[in-house]
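Supplementary Data S3. Sequence and structure tokens for construct A.
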Amino acid sequence: MTLQQLRYVIQAADSHSMNEAARELYISQPTLSAAIRDLEQEIGMEIFRRTSRGTMLTPEGEEFLGYARQVADQYRLLEERFVLREKEKKKFSVSMQHYSFAVKAFVELVKQFGMDEYEFAVYETRTWDVIQDVKNFRSELGILYRNDFNDKVLTKLLKENNLEFHELFSCGTYVYLWKGHPLAKKEEIGMDELTEYPCLSFDQGSSNSFFLAEEVLSTYEYKRIIKANDRATMLNLMVGLNGYTLCSGIICEELNGSDYIAVPLKADESMVIGYISRKGMSISPLGARYLEELKKYREYVL
């Protein structure tokens, strides 16, 4: 296995075509195909499936591609730092469920670098995608929650993907709604009081398992439920329809504004907020700084 072969695999995956990849690499298509076939024979598995619609990655190929990108990126950094002597650009990426405090921690991390050169990425996305992003090296860290209900399934998923969960803090469950909601001034809210209001839930796409839901009580029989796929839409539905969602209770007014409130839910439901990382891999200095920003929210746990 050579670095050149890994670069060929990456280009073929990005181009979805051996012919197009060969043009980008300035080599012939037979040379490219032969090199990838040799690699597939060496590792004993099929990376690509050739179809009439082009070149498609196999499930094993998807995993291999994640490792290949990591190796190629690390080599490029070494080359820039010690061969080309270019100024090293700071890099960090994180994926997360829809938590404004996790976005705010990212904002604080970025602010620390002022005018320095950097290439950061933040992905606020579905639970399954958070897991896949960390598994495939798209993100160094993933932010999500676990509780008694999803613990066994989440533990199994993380183990299968060579990931591990680290607790940051635990918290109760809160009803998140806008301050003009009829129940906003109550000290506690019971599920029976929420019956006539639409429950707002983040859509999990094709991986829409109860165990991957971002909200607790995902199996509760809601009379009215609306699914959305971004936080801005969720906030608009809270105001427009008196909707609500269930959350950790950690409010970030700087990002979401001061028109919303978290009221304790009358239920013995708790959440553990934490981060996932690849098993056996140390956290980078930038990742450690981000986690320090996240840990500051321990004091805001209601």
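Construct B, processed identically:
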Amino acid sequence: MKIALIGYGKMGKMIEQIAISRGHEIVCKIDIDNQEDFESAEFASADVAIEFTTPWTAYDNFLKAFAKNVKVVSGSTGWMKDHGDDVRRMCSEGGKTLFWASNFSVGMAVFSAVNKYLAKIMNNFPQYDVTMEETHHVHKLDAPSGTAITLAEGIIENLDRKQKWGLHETADGVLRIDDIRRGEVPGIHTITYDSPEEDMITITHDAHSRKGFALGAVLAAEYTVQHTGLLSMADLFDF
């Protein structure tokens, strides 16, 4: 498989190592200082581009890749609110392909499935309030994390007493999310169901490094080469 990398920071370099170890070829590496390479023959030859950049550049990167008929795997967050409808339309009606996930960790895919199932169970026990806390490195640009939002949506879909999420917001019907930024933490997500007079249930996903995210992104690229449309971790792992 021929892979183009969009974003060549820590994640991009780790993805490169894992992709090569799995027998794939990196044909193009695009970062802030060589944007002209989107027009290169090497980029156009890619079977898929793996994109990890910023909330402000991701959508434009999708458009540049789609213009060259290159499929995209992206782990960038923060762009969905403004551009989600456009991307969905391009994938459903325009024949483009994007595999997007807020978190590519295999462990997080399992955690997400457990989160939804737990919320469905807890829907029957209204004495428990649910909150979430996410901790990341100090360089992270968005809050709450895209992963926290995805997890929150999984709770809201299955828990009638929560209609929306709110950052540091405590109100009826609101799932409170607190964010912490410290050191070089790859990512910790904790969901707590608390009944003050009874007990507390807590589930946590704690990433040890970015390696799990990078491996998941390469697995997603391998899947994307054989599929089309708007894809997600739910397609890759049928839990």
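The helical segments are 10-21, 41-44, 58-67, 80-92, 106-122, 146-158, 211-224, 233-236. The chain has a mean pLDDT of 95.
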